[in-house]
């Protein structure tokens, strides 16, 4: 625990060192308002709550009154942006907020992290967020080396119109939960329209075990019009024949190039799963799989600019984790899923 804390302290100091260097490189008239420090935060609140503001110049008073609003919680005053009505991100809290956001979006790139931050924060900085992501140790250790496969465009117009399925081979890193239960495969399904994902750990690559997992998902969300897979034709035909007992689903074996969506998602899933295991120092990827899938489903996609969770359920996910201001839900505490 101490070694983890020491490592995090080193990363924090290095990050703020680079942040300070970046702020110093900005033109002086913009430097003070690039980020809101705790000292500036207190000055703004004092200016807005003090009827006698003679100690501040007119320009600063005007800027405070037009840019910020305050909320009295009884214990203390909280500062919010007047336009977005969202909490102001303080310089001293940047590292923790950026870290939690990056982890809880499954180590997503900058734009996905920005979408998550914008739900509850204002005055965050794109450049400083990118600086944090660039120095993320888990991302540095697991840089993608395989170029994405070019895929044929496939159009889906509604949820569950087309679902792509694939099996991820984890036999090189089996998860032995007990002497009798060893997971060696991951079954992943992805809805083509909303990009919503499901994933289940499997012990064997058998149509009966896959059928049981898919059957459970389809009874919860409904069956797709088309279930697409690039696995062996005999495997797909046997699976579809089993599913058609309960659902009017049609199978469609496809060439891997037309499976681009699920192939890219496989890479995203395994990469995020490896980073979660790195963060939690664990080898039980089957326990972290639901956590990673949830995080992937609550981060925005480039095509829709919304999260798959929003498109499927029509609302943001509920959690019992609130931000440091006690307002809204933006990040989770330390992951306990592993």
Automatic annotation (TrEMBL):
It comes from the Eukaryota. One of its GO terms (biological process) is DNA integration. Residues 149-316 form the Integrase catalytic domain. InterPro entries: Integrase_cat-core (IPR001584), Integrase_H2C2 (IPR041588), Retrovirus_Pol_polyprotein (IPR050951), RNaseH-like_sf (IPR012337), RNaseH_sf (IPR036397). Transmembrane segments: none annotated. It holds the Pfam family Integrase_H2C2. GO terms for molecular function: nucleic acid binding. This is Integrase catalytic domain-containing protein.
């Amino acid at each position: 625990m101490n070694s983890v804390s020491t490592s995090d302290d080193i990363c924090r100091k290095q990050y703020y060192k680079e942040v300070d260097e970046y702020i110093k490189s900005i033109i002086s008239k913009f430097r003070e308002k690039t980020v809101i420090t705790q000292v500036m935060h207190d000055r703004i609140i004092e200016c807005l709550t003090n009827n006698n503001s003679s100690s501040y110049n007119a320009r600063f008073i005007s800027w405070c009154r037009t840019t910020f609003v305050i909320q009295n919680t009884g214990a203390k005053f909280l500062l919010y942006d007047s336009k977005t009505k969202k909490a102001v991100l303080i310089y001293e809290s940047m590292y923790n907020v950026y870290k939690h956001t990056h982890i809880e979006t499954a180590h997503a790139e900058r734009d996905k992290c920005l979408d998550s931050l914008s739900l509850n924060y204002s005055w965050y900085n794109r450049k400083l967020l990118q600086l944090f992501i660039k120095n993320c140790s888990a991302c540095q250790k697991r840089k993608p080396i395989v170029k994405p496969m070019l895929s044929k465009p496939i159009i889906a117009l509604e949820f569950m119109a087309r679902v792509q399925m694939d099996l991820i081979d984890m036999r090189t890193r089996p998860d032995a939960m007990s002497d009798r239960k060893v997971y060696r495969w991951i079954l992943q399904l992805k809805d083509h329209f909303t990009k919503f994902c499901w994933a289940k750990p499997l012990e064997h690559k058998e149509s009966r075990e896959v059928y049981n997992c898919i059957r459970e998902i389809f009874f919860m969300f409904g069956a797709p019009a088309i279930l697409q897979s690039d696995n062996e034709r005999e495997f797909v035909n046997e699976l579809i024949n089993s599913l058609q007992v309960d659902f009017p689903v049609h199978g469609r074996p496809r060439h891997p190039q037309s499976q681009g969506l699920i192939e890219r998602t496989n890479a995203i899933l395994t990469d995020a799963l490896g980073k979660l295991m790195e963060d939690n120092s664990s080898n039980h990827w089957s326990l972290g799989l639901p956590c990673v899938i949830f995080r992937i489903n609550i981060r925005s996609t480039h095509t829709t600019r919304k999260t798959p969770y929003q498109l499927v359920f029509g609302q943001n996910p509920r959690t019992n984790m609130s931000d440091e201001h006690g307002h809204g839900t933006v990040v989770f505490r330390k992951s306990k899923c592993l």
